[in-house]
Amino acid sequence: MSETYHIPVLLEEAVEQLSIRPDGVYVDLTFGGGGHSRRILSELSSRGRLYSLDQDPDARVNAPDDERFTFVESNFRFVRGALRSRGVDRVDGILADLGVSSHHFDTAERGFSFRSDAALDMRMNNRGGRTAADIVNSYTNDALCEIFSQWGELDTTWKIANCILRARDKQPIRTTGELIAAVEPVTPAKDPTKFLTKLFQALRIEVNGEMEALKMALEQSLKLLSPGGRLVVISYHSLEDRIVKNFMRSGNCDGRIEKDFYGRQTTPVEAVVRKPIIPTDEETARNPRARSARMRVGEKRES
Length: 303
Prior knowledge:
By secondary structure, the chain is α/β, with parallel strands linked by helices. Helices cover 38% and strands 14% of the residues.
């Protein structure tokens, strides 16, 4: 495994919160560089099992040669079906690190970063599906405004969309550099990095359907967990964290509290920690990409 593929965030804290049983069955929804998976394996006995998912075929190169381990090439939105096809209906713990791996940001040709001029791609699974270029060249003004507002939480989105439409009328926007040039008239001189980070985030989320995938993964994870099983989720921006927080307190992504006939709450999951666990100053000094991480933990109630 390349040590630079991805540095696992909140590694020890995540494994501690999983409360691992040596002979249990666990799932890593976001394998990436395999750092979390290898740490989980170190806690398992010969009878324990770990299934790790990743939709990016590049991640397979990091898979450990271990009979207790199974790599599953799949988007985590399909986790329940992927495991049931392998004869697994119940698991003891599930971990998801929602951050984009360092590998994706640092591999210029994947188009995730505005720091390198490359094809405007941004697909987590680059074997098919629409690219960021497809979106900026085909979405209407209103559709672009919606994703920049909803997924990027940007202001004056109509100005951004207008810049893109004017640029693509002259020629298609195919690279990250061409997109940056297109929005240059509305890029704040004071903090261009923050603006471009939000812009690229919005496109990446739209390309990969990240919010819908997260909701599906959370709902399926709860169905897979055995009573008393733990769900540990590390998120990196407010959109993800809001969904995870709602789910940990209510068992649904809207945060809707269900009640029985007598008015008692019937939530299927209980938040183990009331406030998110965040990286230490020492960890963020070692790995600046960890600075925005928030970890929430839920436990499935006894039915």
